[in-house]
Every structure is written in C-alpha cells, then in structure tokens.
C-alpha cells in the first residue's frame, strides 16, 4: 500500500485541511485518504480502499473530471450515514506516477453554500419588501458611472430590465421637466458636502402616467474622503399622497359641516371635558367654542342640570350603549327643551368619551301642543256637527212623512177631485218631497257612519236576483230619460249581506248612470263571479269623468260640476263606499272624458258550505 512518505508529500498529505484522495487511474478506485478526507467521508483509508470513485463522489468519474472546463468543479460528497456535503473538487496527476495515480483535492463548501443561500433569501425578502412598500433601491458607482436598479425600481419607473439601461443622465430625463433642475442641484450638493439627501419629484413613465416619488440617498466616501458611490431608495407615494389629500379635504368638509350645523354637536372625554364642540352646542350654555373647550358641564350649567347630564353620561359609559332623551335646560334665552342622542366615543376598540348630537325642539313641542289642542277642538266641533245633522235629520223626517201622506190623500181624491193643474202641482210637490226624503236619509246614514253606529245585517242573498229587482224599479226613470236599460247576471250569485243596503248601492249607481246618460244612450248593469269574489259593474255611455276628478268621487260632500247641476247631497257615493267596504268589498270607477263610466264593486261570495 502507498504511504504519504513514499509519495514525496507526506507532511502536506497529513496537515492540509482539504481532503486528499489518491485514485488509481486505471480502475478509478480509491487507493488512499488523507486524515482530512477520512473526517469528511466518515471512512478510514482501510475502509475506503478499493471503493469506486462514484461511491464517495456520486456521478463523478476521472473522465468527466479531466474533461471539465473549470479546474474547480462543484459536487456532492456522500457519507456512510447518507448525509451529503456540497464540495469543490480539483484533480491533478501524482508527480512521478502520473500514469498510475491521480490526486483529488476536495474542499467542504457547506458554509459558503449556506451563506449564498441565505444571501439569496435575503435578496428575495428585500425584493418582496420593496414590492409591498413600493420602494425601489439604486446604486451609482461614480468611478465607472454605472447605475444599478432593483426590480421594484424598474416597476415604479415603468421600464423593462432587458430593454432599459439605467444611468444618472437617463434618470434626469424621465423626471418631469419642472423638477429636473431641483433634483440635479440636490444631488450635486450632496456630492459636495457628503450629507444625506431627500427630495420629492415627479416622473413621466413610458405609458404616460405621472407618478410622485419620494427619494432618499447618501454618499459613500473612501479613506481619502473622496466620494466613490451614491446609494438610495425611491418610493412611489402617488397613492398615499392622493389619499392624504382626500382625507384632508374630507376632514375640512366634515369640520365645516360640524361647525356650521344648526344642531349642537360635541365630544367629551372620560372626565367630562369638552374636546370638541360647535358654535350651536356652545351657545346652549351661553358660551363660545373657545370658552367651552376644556371645561365640564359643572362649569357651564346650573348644578341640577349638570347633575342630570352627568348621570346620563355615566350610564352610557357604564353600559356602552347609546341613548336618546329629552331634557329641559335653563339657558340665557330661558328654559329650552332639547332632544339629544348620545353614544360612546370609541377609538382603538376602547371607549374614550361620549359623542352628543342635540336639537332644540322647544318650538316644535309648542307647535305640537297647539296642534293637539286644535285637533281636540276640531273633534269636538265634528261631534257637534254630527249631532246637529242627526238631530235635524230626525226632525225633518216627521214633517216630510206627514207631507207625503197628505199628498197621497190629495192624489186619491179624498179631499175632492183635483183639476189637471192641481194634479200637476201635487206631483211636483211629491217629487220634491221625495228628493228631500232621500237627502234626509243620506244625512242620517252619514251621521251614523261618523258616529260609528252604522250597522249592517248579514243574511243569505242571491245578488243576481237583487240586481234584477233593483234594475226593474228603475225602468220608468230610464224610459222617461229615453235611455236603454239592460241587465245581465250569470246565474245565481250567492253571498251573505244586508239586502236593503246593497239595494241602496245598486239604486244609487244605476240611478246616477241613467241621470247622467243623454237620451238615446245605454246603461248596462251586469254581475258575475271572479274566483271567490262577486263583481257588479254599471256601465253607461255618458260624457265620462276627467282623470283629475276621479279621486274626489267617493269623498263626502264632494260633487263635480255636472252633479251640482243635477242636484244631490254629495253623500251618495261616500255612503255606497261605506256599505261596500262594510261588507268586506271594494268599490271604484273607470272613466275617460267622452267614453262613459264604469262604476264597479266587488263583494265576498258565500262559502260553499
């Protein structure tokens, strides 16, 4: 076996910190390991002797090592425990026995590789931090005039690294022309005095965007005091500056709103001191904003008022819940009532005080009290009016009954035979008395509705039969007005209701249709079923009603000009509405000028049972 002393480099073989491997050239097997190699590979020379080279250095052969372009190759050394070490390998023939042996020098580069990996990690982290903060870095080597940019700086400037070569002169060119001279003077002054520098500027990117930059830098000097390098950072502050400006504008608007508001607005700290208050709030206690700030309610109000306000504040701070309340305060203008809303002033997730918004409602309360008083007076007048109408209506019914009774006697000739002229006079008196009777009946119904004593019976009715009967009673009126009166009803229409009151509705609607339809016109009354409802329609070919007049039709004492000409109380349709709605139904009208009218109402059909 070979020993180092026999090879002429025994001392070097033993003390060299790098691992030395003696390899048989022909077999590419290990002949000998230096002590450093034994430690590296975890094998003694005896254990390693005869092992193939790639057992210790995987994927390495003498041929590949000899053919390498570089005298130093990087690879991996493998230990028996499987651990792999990054190594650097160089090869040379053994002096005097070049044909038989080669010497491999293997150096452990684990620390260097780890340091390089750490550097790469730091570089990635730095690049990520720059990207998140929109901060790019740069270096300017003064001797070579070479400028280097970080990746983020390329992004900020809108440049492509493979297309743009940074330089000091190029940087000045992309700066907005209004800033170029300022930037140049700042950098030149820094080169002269060596002090750190900072400035704001704007650049114009290739895509036309203008960005605002905040630049910082410092000059590095050598041992001789002369500058050799300038380094710095550039941050894109376009968006932060825009947000800052928007915030300032918003705060200015909010301040203007608060301080010019007619409502009192203020913020108090935990000790009850006024941190903010507007003019309206300060005026409540007869102060100005300047004299109220920093003071407490005990300084501004009488003891009782201050005690009440403080008690509410303490309750809000204790519960963390807002509160609305009214309070009367003695002010320089006399007692005033305020409606206040208070809620906790929260900052950084903790209660820092109280926010208050208050409004003077003294005048509103006075007006509300006056309104309620007038409302009660009007209700009393309305009751008196209803009582009067009811009393007058009852008093009129008795003489009207007597008048109509005696008219019947006269028509029957009990008092003697009437001449044609007398008979005509009696007929006119009877018709006038009948109209007056209907008016009195309407007034009585209206009085009952207003008093809440209007009652409806409920019994089985065939609405179709009721329609036929009521329309038949109107035939003489239709013939007298030369109006064609027709009725259609689809079979039986059963329901529960008051037959007398429903007959009143039918007579009113059909009678009005005949009254307002010119000679030669048509009036049609039809009834039919719609699901679980019964529907009645009264159609005429009269002049129709203007759209703006339709909402007034069912209002009490409301008459259109045509209705006033025909006479009437203006209560008929409102009473019809009360009767229909009292049966659980609806009533309405459809009309256009010149196209006639359709008055309709719906009622619940009787249950199948």
Summarize the structure.
This protein is an alpha+beta fold. A hairpin with a 2-residue loop joins strand 19 and strand 20 (533-540).
Describe the structure.
Helix 20 (499-516) packs antiparallel against helix 22. The protein is an alpha+beta fold and 609 residues long. It has a five-stranded antiparallel beta sheet with strand order 2-1-5-4-3. It has a five-stranded antiparallel beta sheet with strand order 7-6-10-9-8, sandwiched between helices. The protein has a five-stranded antiparallel beta sheet with strand order 12-11-15-14-13. The longest helix is centred in the middle third of the chain and has 50 residues, at 362-411.
What does the overall shape look like?
elongated
Distance between the termini: 124 Å
Average pLDDT across residues?
A: 83
Largest beta sheet: strand ordering: 2-1-5-4-3
Give the helix/strand class. alpha+beta
Blueprint (SSEs and pairs):
Blueprint: H1 4-7, H2 10-15, E1 19-24, E2 29-33, H3 35-41, H4 45-48, H5 53-56, H6 62-67, E3 73-78, E4 84-93, E5 101-108, H7 110-133, E6 135-141, E7 146-149, H8 151-157, H9 168-174, H10 180-193, E8 197-204, E9 210-221, E10 227-236, H11 238-260, E11 264-269, E12 274-277, H12 279-284, H13 289-292, H14 297-300, H15 303-319, E13 323-331, E14 334-347, E15 350-360, H16 362-411, H17 420-451, E16 459-462, H18 463-473, H19 475-480, E17 484-489, E18 494-497, H20 499-516, E19 522-530, E20 533-540, H21 561-566, H22 572-582, E21 586-591, E22 597-604
Helix pairs in contact: 16-17, 18-20, 20-22
């Amino acid at each position: 076996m070979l020993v180092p002393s026999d090879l002429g480099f025994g001392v070097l073989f033993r003390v060299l910190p790098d691992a030395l491997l003696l390899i048989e050239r022909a077999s590419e097997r290990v002949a000998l390991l230096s002590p450093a190699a034994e430690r590296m590979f975890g094998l003694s020379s005896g254990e390693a002797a005869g092992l193939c080279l790639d057992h210790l250095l995987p994927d390495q052969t003498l041929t590949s090592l000899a053919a390498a372009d570089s005298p130093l190759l990087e690879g991996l050394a493998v230990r028996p425990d499987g651990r792999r070490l990054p190594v650097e390998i160089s090869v040379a023939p053994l002096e005097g026995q070049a044909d038989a042996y080669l010497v491999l020098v293997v150096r452990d580069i684990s620390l260097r590789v780890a340091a390089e990996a750490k550097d790469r990690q730091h570089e990635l982290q730095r690049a990520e931090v720059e990207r998140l903060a929109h901060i790019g870095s740069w270096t300017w080597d003064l001797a070579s005039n070479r400028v280097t940019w970080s990746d983020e700086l390329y992004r900020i400037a809108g440049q492509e690294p493979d297309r743009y070569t940074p330089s000091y002169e190029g940087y000045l060119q992309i700066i907005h022309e209004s800033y170029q001279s300022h930037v140049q003077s700042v950098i030149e002054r820094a080169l002269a005095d060596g002090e750190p520098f900072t400035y704001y500027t704007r650049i114009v990117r290739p895509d036309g965007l203008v960005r605002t930059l905040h630049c910082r830098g410092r000059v590095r000097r050598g041992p001789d005091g002369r500058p050799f390098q300038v380094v710095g950072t550039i941050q894109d502050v376009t968006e932060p500056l825009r947000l800052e400006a928007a915030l300032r504008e918003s705060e200015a608007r909010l301040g203007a709103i608060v301080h010019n508001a007619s409502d009192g607005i203020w913020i108090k700290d935990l000790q009850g001191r006024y941190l903010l208050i507007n003019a309206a709030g300060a005026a409540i206690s007869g102060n100005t904003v300047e004299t109220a700030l920093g003071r407490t309610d005990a300084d501004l109000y009488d003891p009782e008022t201050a005690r009440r306000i403080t008690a509410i504040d303490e309750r809000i701070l204790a519960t963390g819940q807002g509160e609305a309340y009214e309070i009367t305060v003695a002010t320089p203008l006399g007692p005033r009532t305020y409606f206040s809303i208070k809620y906790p002033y929260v900052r950084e997730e903790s209660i820092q005080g109280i926010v208050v918004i208050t409004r003077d409602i003294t005048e509103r309360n006075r007006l509300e009290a006056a309104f309620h008083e007038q409302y009660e007076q009007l209700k009393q007048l309305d009751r008196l009016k209803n009582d009067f109408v009811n009393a007058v209506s009852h008093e009129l019914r008795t003489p009207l009954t007597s008048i109509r009774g005696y008219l019947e006697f006269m028509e029957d000739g009990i008092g003697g035979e009437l001449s044609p002229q007398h008979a005509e006079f009696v007929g006119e008196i009877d018709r006038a008395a009948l109209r007056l009777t209907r008016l009195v009946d309407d007034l009585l119904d209206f009085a009952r509705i207003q008093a809440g004593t209007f009652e409806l019976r409920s019994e089985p009715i065939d609405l179709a039969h009721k329609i036929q009967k009521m329309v038949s009673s109107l035939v003489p009126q239709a013939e007298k007005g030369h109006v064609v009166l027709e009725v259609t009803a689809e079979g039986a229409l059963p329901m529960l209701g008051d037959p007398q009151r429903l007959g009143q509705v039918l007579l009113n609607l059909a009678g009005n249709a005949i009254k307002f339809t010119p000679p030669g016109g048509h009036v049609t009354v039809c009834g039919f079923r719609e699901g679980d409802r019964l529907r009645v329609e009264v159609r005429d070919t009269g002049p129709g009603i203007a759209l703006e007049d339709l909402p007034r039709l069912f209002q009490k004492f409301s008459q259109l000009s045509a209705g006033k000409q025909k006479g009437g109380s203006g209560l008929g349709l409102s009473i019809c509405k009360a009767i229909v709605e009292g049966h659980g139904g609806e009533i309405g009208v459809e009309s256009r000028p010149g196209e006639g009218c359709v008055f309709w109402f719906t009622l619940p059909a009787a249950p199948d049972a």
